[in-house]
Design a protein that fits this description.
8-stranded mixed sheet, binds nicotinamide-adenine-dinucleotide, Mycothione reductase, 14 helices, FAD/NAD(P)-binding domain, globular, alpha/beta, 3 domains, single chain, about 475 residues, 5-stranded parallel sheet, binds flavin-adenine dinucleotide, Enolase-like, domain 1
């Protein structure tokens, strides 16, 4: 069995979005070995945020009491929340699949895993050889496994499975200190689960700006049990006669490899990063270049490199190649690939200069650009002074209304030019408050002009951004 196509796309996440009308009437294949729609839709951004919102509502009574409003929380109906989420998500996945598979006559969907046997040749698990003039590798990443005894027990989950559990656990151990761990810790804590987070490092979210990582770590510790400088060594069933059901014992060790006791839990979530799927795809074996962490090497036009040069007709996008494991970056790269695949003019380059991200925890986090440490090295290199402003939400009128005690906006800029180098927010709706700063960085709008060149609505929370910009004292 073999078939040849004008274009083969491996992976139906952001890869699915590159097909515009220009492909009508041309032969296209999509190879998808998992659930149609990929990580973001099925097991990533969308269902997690659909949990974040109701979990936030469950936490409102505790917040409201500080402001003199007594509310009571009667119940959190996990199954109703879960079924609403997956009722919607599963239907979108099924409809997307049917559209490609049934409605689009020029598109063939191979619903199976494939391995590369050449740069533009794949063999599916059922033995079909698929070749194409152009191949787009959009095969994403998967949760990294933790090689500890007991990791294969059914009580141990990854982000791929934890959202579909039938009942929330009473006690949950979360291993890892990154984005996934933080978001699930917040969700489960807010709905009333006793969360213990086990983290190797000395702060949570250690890649973020140091002030934000420190403050978030403190905020998390105020809410749930965070064990820093700790690793897990084993997970064992407490009832050895029924190992697959009931609680487990998670054994811990400290940074000096000393026994650090144990925590008992009903479930464990392993969230220790995601690895690119190049190994299962066999991308290295067909001569495509890989980074040390397994990502495909691409140039700025998203062309995959082989021995340092673009492999003809081979493109990649998203988690399988990107430095950023973020959906908006995968989508951006998909738009670049879509253009470059069909253009008769010049190729478009990806723009990764100002990539924002947000962590949808409580408090929320959002960031773009350099951390303070990076900005210090940058300013030393270009001979500029670094201006730093840290503005409390609680210093503005809306912050008073909220009686906010944790929120901050931290801005970094070159003092001489006013160029904004980084923005780091922790607090209510940080993911939205940051957007004008992302825009300013993209357009090169200096800090003082951003503050004084427009009206800021009084007394909106955006005043905290205005005041942070003014407190940079850049004069530009
Ligand atoms: C829990 C969680 C929450 C997240 N939240 C956010 C968020 O809030 N915001 C954000 O920006 N990002 C978030 N992300 C990251 C985001 O989901 C990813 O960056 C994005 O989905 C990557 O898209 P992609 O197209 O590169 O890969 P994917 O969407 O993973 O698509 C790859 C597809 O390829 C298929 N595949 C892989 N190998 C093969 C093969 N050999 N043969 C056939 N098919 C194959 C897979 O089955 C998969 O469907 C989150 C991730 C997780 C896990
Ligand atoms: N809101 C969002 O945008 C969002 C949400 C979730 C995930 N994501 C994306 O998905 C990616 C993956 O998320 P993640 O949280 O799995 O990874 P991560 O890279 O953010 O964090 C991984 C964590 O695991 C720890 N770790 C790694 N190996 C370990 C080991 N052997 N033992 C103990 N700890 C170990 C690391 O120290 C780190 O704390 C993120 O980098 C992010 O780009 C984004």
């Amino acid at each position: 069995m073999s078939s040849h196509h004008d274009l083969v796309i491996v992976g139906s996440g952001s890869g699915n979005s590159i097909l515009g009308p220009e492909w009508d009437g041309r032969s296209v294949a999509i190879v998808e070995g998992g659930t149609f729609g990929g990580t973001c839709l099925n097991v990533g951004c969308i269902p997690t945020k659909m949990f974040v919102y109701p979990a936030g509502l469950a936490a409102v009574p505790a917040e409201a009491a500080r402001l003199g409003v007594d509310l009571t929380r009667d119940a959190v109906h996990w199954q109703r929340i879960r079924d609403r989420i997956f009722g919607r998500v599963d239907a979108i996945s099924a409809n997307g699949r049917a559209y490609r598979d049934v409605e689009q006559k020029n598109v063939t969907l191979y619903g199976e895993h494939a391995r590369m046997t050449g740069p533009r040749e794949l063999v599916t698990d059922s033995g079909r050889t698929v070749t194409a003039d152009a191949v787009v590798i959009a095969a994403g990443s998967r949760p990294r496994e933790l090689p500890v005894p007991g990791a294969a027990l059914p009580q141990v989950h990854s982000s791929d499975t934890i959202m579909r559990i039938p009942h929330p656990p009473r006690r949950l151990v979360i291993v890892g200190g990154g984005y996934v761990a933080a978001e699930f810790a917040a969700i489960f804590h807010q709905i009333g689960v006793a969360v213990t987070q086990v983290v190797r490092g000395t702060t949570l979210l250690r890649d973020l700006d140091e002030t934000i990582a420190d403050r978030f770590t403190r905020a998390a510790r105020d809410q749930w049990d965070v064990r820093l400088g700790t690793e897990i060594t084993a997970i064992a069933p407490i009832d050895e006669e029924h190992p697959g059901t009931g609680p487990v014992r998670v054994s811990l060790m400290d940074a000096e490899d000393r026994d650090a006791g144990h925590v008992d839990a009903d479930l464990v979530l392993i969230a220790v990063g995601r690895i690119p799927n190049t190994d299962r795809l066999g991308a290295g074996a067909v001569g495509l270049d890989l980074h040390h962490d397994g990502r495909l090497r691409v140039d700025q036009f998203q062309r995959v490199l082989a021995a340092g040069r673009p492999a003809p007709g081979v493109w990649a996008l998203g988690d399988i190649c990107s430095e950023y494991q973020l959906k908006h970056v995968a989508n951006h790269e998909a738009r670049v690939v879509a253009h470059n695949l069909t253009t008769t003019g010049s190729l478009l380059a990806s723009d990764h200069r100002f990539v924002p991200s947000a962590v949808f925890t409580h408090p929320q986090l959002a960031q773009v650009g350099m951390t303070e440490a990076q900005a210090r090295s940058h300013c030393a290199a270009v001979g500029q002074d670094l201006a730093v402003a840290v503005q409390d939400y609680g210093s503005t009128a809306y912050g008073w209304a909220m009686e906010d005690r944790t929120g901050i906006v931290k801005l970094l800029a070159e003092r001489g030019t006013g160029r904004i180098l980084g923005a780091h927010l922790l607090g209510h709706e940080a993911s939205m408050l940051i957007q004008p700063l992302v825009q300013a960085m993209h357009t090169g709008l200096p800090a003082h002009r951003m503050a004084r060149g427009q009206y800021w609505i009084h007394p909106a929370l955006t005043e905290v951004v205005e005041n942070a910009l003014l407190n940079l004292h850049t004069g530009a």
